[in-house]
Design a protein that fits this description.
This protein is mainly α and 286 residues long. The protein is 46% helix and 3% strand. Strands 1-3-2 form a 3-stranded mixed beta sheet, with no helix packed on it. It is globular, with a radius of gyration of 28 Å. InterPro entries: Ferritin-like (IPR012347), Ferritin-like_SF (IPR009078), Mn_catalase (IPR007760), Mn_catalase_dom (IPR039377).
């Protein structure tokens, strides 16, 4: 169940409206690094948790609801950047969206389809997709995915902060960057509370793995290379359950030959055998 209040989570002001920046902000709404992604990701992860994981469910849902507020903030920022643009630019946009795109670099659909407001799309106008969401049902795996999601989101927000000169936009993005810092750290700390966060899933019996390769870095170079002595080719593994080693070549075995397909699915043309091509002088016509 959700409740809402008619105020933004954090104040959003735009001092120098910029339709082009509005287009870039769309990436932070509906892009692969955007707030729609993390809000839905954390919700679906929370909804998958069974009884006994209440503290993690609450952590995920609290953060998901906060991310919904971030979407609202960014949508407000997009609208203010579009609708507060100079009068001459607005008149040109009303003549033709193509002119607006040429003048400002804005997404024409923000004018054509949304009446100069935000949309659930990325900066190229590609609609948000649930394919961005990682919700595996495995808490450890999902928490690692959340660290990555916040890392890419924070990277995007810092790039937007560097791009704009508008004080209001810098202030809003500074807040979002700070929240990404917190969220990265909370997911990392939550991982530390799990007994066996790696390897994922921890429930699989490791004795069933191929013990020859479960901690071996395997080179894929054609020419054999010596062990470079990196931290991932020697020494104890992070999970404390093995020692890294190095193999200079892939195991390699077997041939790449496909079995015969079902005749009903075989679209290959019939091949003429050598005997069919031979000149058989003994063959007589009927």
């Amino acid at each position: 169940m959700f409740f809402q209040e008619p105020e933004l989570q954090y104040e959003v002001t735009v001092e120098q409206p910029d339709p082009h920046f509005a287009k870039l902000l769309q990436q932070a709404i509906g892009g692969q690094e955007g707030e729609m992604r993390v809000a839905m990701q954390y919700m679906f992860q929370a909804w998958a948790l069974p009884e006994g994981y209440e503290e993690y469910r609450n952590l995920l849902m609290e953060t998901a609801a906060e991310e919904l507020g971030h979407i609202e903030m960014l949508a407000s920022a997009v609208t203010k950047n579009l609708r507060g643009s100079p009068k001459q630019m607005s008149e040109d946009a009303q003549e033709t969206a193509a002119t607006a795109a040429a003048m400002t670099g804005q997404n024409p659909r923000q004018f054509l389809s949304a009446g100069q407001s935000a949309m659930p799309v990325d900066s190229n106008g590609v609609p948000f997709t649930g394919g961005y969401i990682a919700a595996s049902g495995n808490l450890a795996g999902d928490l690692y995915a959340n660290v990555m999601a916040e890392a890419t989101g924070r990277t995007l927000a810092t790039r937007l902060w560097e791009y704009t000169d508008d004080p209001g936009m810098k202030d809003m993005l500074s807040y979002l960057i700070a929240r990404d810092t917190m969220h990265q750290n909370q997911w990392l700390r939550a991982l530390e509370t799990l007994d066996d966060p790696v390897p994922v899933p921890a429930s699989f019996p490791q004795e069933q793995e191929n013990q020859e390769f479960n901690y071996t870095f395997i080179s894929t170079r054609r020419e054999e290379q010596p062990d470079p002595g990196y931290p991932w080719t020697q020494g104890e593994s992070p999970d404390g359950m093995g020692e890294f080693s190095y193999a200079a070549e892939q195991p390699g075995d077997g041939e790449v030959i496909a079995p015969q397909p079902d005749p009903m699915t075989n679209d290959e043309p019939n091949r003429t055998s050598e005997s069919d091509n031979s000149d058989d002088s003994t063959t007589s016509s009927k």
